[in-house]
Design a protein that fits this description.
Order of helices and strands: EEEHHHEHEHEHEHEHEHEHEHEHEE
Shape: globular
Structural class: alpha/beta
Mean pLDDT: 94
Strand content: 15-25%
Protein name: Mandelate racemase/muconate lactonizing enzyme family protein
Distance between the termini: 47 Å
Cofactor: Mg(2+)
Organism: Myxozyma melibiosi
Keywords: Lyase, Magnesium, Metal-binding
Radius of gyration: 20 Å
CATH architecture of the largest domain: Alpha-Beta Barrel
Number of helices: 12
Amino acid sequence: MPKIAEIEYFRVPPRWLYVKVTDVEGNYGWGEASLEGHSEAVEGALDEFKDRFIGWEANNIENIWTSVWRLGFYRGGPVLQSALSGLDIALWDLKARRLNVPIYELLGGKVRNKIKVYAWIGGDRPDDVRSQAQGRLDQGFKAVKMNATADIGWLDTPSSLDSAADRLATVKSLGMDAGVDFHGRIHKPMAKQLAKLLEPHRPMFIEEPLLSENHEGVSEIAGQTSIPIALGERLYSRWDVKKFLNPVSIDILQPDIAHVGGITEIRKISAMCEAYDIAIAPHCPLGSIALAACFQIAACTQNHVIQEMSIGIHYNTEAGEQDIISYVHNPEFFDVKDGYVVVPEGPGLGIEVNEEAVRALSKNAKAWRSGGFVSADGSLSEW
């Protein structure tokens, strides 16, 4: 069996970290280890992986994953799991490309022919959602997601929530479905009120009504609203997910394939959730490789319901000209029609990474930094 010969990583704009693994026979695969705002930390973990895994059998993906988890003493968390995601996705891509099949064929085959998708509108300070939603409709999307609010106080004036309901009503008036992302920036006194305010407008889901670290509060809000509760981008393993399954306090889990340990772990998490009648809608405001990996999971996962797409997201447009199609030779892979993308049929991830562009744009690429809000009284609030 071919052994791993090289592990490389590339920091590319606007805020992504791509990984390439090559075996001794020249076969290669691409992965994504993006951890927004913390690229250097993940790069350090990938340097450790270079020391550990060059010379290992590239086919033994489960063994490599398990060795990272169980033989490092310290395990889990966003940094190590994001680095592992990049390695894991690249190994799956390498193996499937070598066998000339899509990754989903190695995971049992597809259960659907097309994948429902949604796109972002509104930015971190949401406004002008009508024209932005219309733009997404013109692109082929039937569903969108937007932030509920900008920065908001722990206990703010109730009228500060009114505009969120107005924006949701505006998007719904165009005939689109809409998810509303609380982004963990709203605390319980306001989150309870906002959920009640949005309920008559029937959002597709509310996302991170509270930070996932406050699972008791999430459970409380879930018991007070009929709106589906979604979260998961800040959960990094099946062990992190457990507390939301017993007792069940969510309806939709949103694991991020670039943060949760890659294809290997998201597949296991999805199976856990199916046993509790919880849907999977992977978080992915990231790059083309992470999104392609999500498509592979969507193709073969029964409880997958919808996929976030980052094309044209505000993080990309604020940074300049780079978007998910900037690093691939087959941009039609991401084409949306009537709210869906077609399940890919090409080998591996199904995308052909433009390595020349990756190497060129990675030179002197700066690390992206997370934003933040300062409240009127000078205190810090969640971004």
